[in-house]
Amino acid sequence: MIGLTTTTKVILIVEVRRAVQLTGGSSFTVTLPKEWVERMGLSKGSQVIISPAEDGGLHIYPDKPFSRRPSLVEIMLTEDLSQLLVGAYLYGYDTIKIVSKTPITDTWLEMIRRVVRGLAGAEIVDESDESVEVQIVLNEETVAPEKLLRRQYNLVMGMVEYAVNAVLMDDSSLARVAVTRDEEVDRLYFTLVRVLRSALVDPALAKRLNTSPLNLLDLRVAAKFIEDAGDQAAEMAKEKLRNKKPMSDDVKQEFRNIAKIVLSTGFDPIDAFFSHEITLVNKVTGLRSEFMKRSEEFLRRVSGRGDTASLYKLHFHLARVCEDLADVAELSLPIKPYVARQT
To answer: Which residues constitute the signal peptide according to the record (predicted)?
Structure first.
């Protein structure tokens, strides 16, 4: 990655082939790769936990949690600093040091502080003329991904409701609330992604979080859908702030009708995601179909008006929210088939 210099030694463990040996006439043994043993801090006499995987393989974990040394990454001060700083956070680094060949200006410092405020557990611990050090104090083991995802979903649905009411009630204050809450949604999203990435590269952490790689993947995708729904709600609110012209009564009624469909999904998408209930999935996807049909009348009414472009944008963002919510529900597929009788 351009602009990053890591001081952490990375040990890559390639796939190895081992022969199964018979020991003592009754036990089968397989040797462990030396690099993995050293990386996990194991030695002679250490114990490991072996558990079967769904694909027929085996998972091997250290018996005691392995604490890795804090990792440090240095980022050069460039125009891409904001993205690089967030990227280093998501990658899982514990210390992020921003360095510059020239004194860092107040403008750059304010931008760094703004980005850091949006990252949970991140604090600026040291500043000098040519460097800023950011420490990440976030214990991934104490963060429940499922709770973070539900919290993110709750905030986003609140944003959607604020944005819709801002449009229907011509209330700019509600629109500003929706825009402001997008920052909190992003903060939760970044936290969740950091935890999920850490668990994916550290099987022991995934075990302590009582989750599997497949669940981590589904959580990551669901979080992105929900985060996008929040972005669309914020864009809807921003469009209302840009165009303060009230809707005509007939258009407002049609917008109310399609917005009501989206809001009626409630918590069904996130409940379907966690419960894998086919009835909830069908209910959400059915509402998506209803939204698409009802949208035809809204688009017909707004066609050819002076503010058609703004109304089209409102519909586009609301439609994206509807699609994102349906996608969250559909992540629970394939659903375990119902077994009427086992033999």
So the answer is: none
Question: 51 lies in which domain range?
Answer: 7-62
Please tell me the pTM assigned to this model. 0.77
Residue 205 CA to residue 228 CA, distance in Å, equals 28
Same domain, 30 and 128: no
172-201 helix and 213-242 helix, angle to the nearest 10 degrees: 160
> Is 115 found in the same domain as 176?
no
Determine the 3-state secondary structure of 94 from DSSP. Answer: coil
For residue 167, pLDDT beyond 90 = yes
Higher-pLDDT residue of 76, 14: 76
Going by pLDDT thresholds of 50, 70 and 90, the confidence category of residue 12 is: very low
What are 14's two structure tokens?
């390639």
Tell me phi and psi for residue 142, to 5 degrees. Answer: -95, 0
CA dihedral 216, 233, 151, 325 (to 10 degrees): -50
Which amino acid is it at 305? R
Domain of residue 196, CATH code: 1.20.58.220
Report the alpha-carbon angle 253-169-161, nearest 5: 85
Q: How many CA atoms lie within 13 A of 52 on its CB side?
A: 3
pLDDT(63) > 80: no
In whole angstroms, give the CA distance from residue 266 to residue 328: 12
In the chain, pLDDT over 90 holds for what percent of residues? 58
- CATH number of the domain within which 117 lies: 3.30.110.60
- Give the CB-side neighbour count of residue 173, counting CA atoms within 13 A: 0
Query: What is the distance between the alpha carbons of residues 319 and 125, in angstroms, rounded to a whole number?
Result: 43
Write the DSSP symbol of residue 336: P
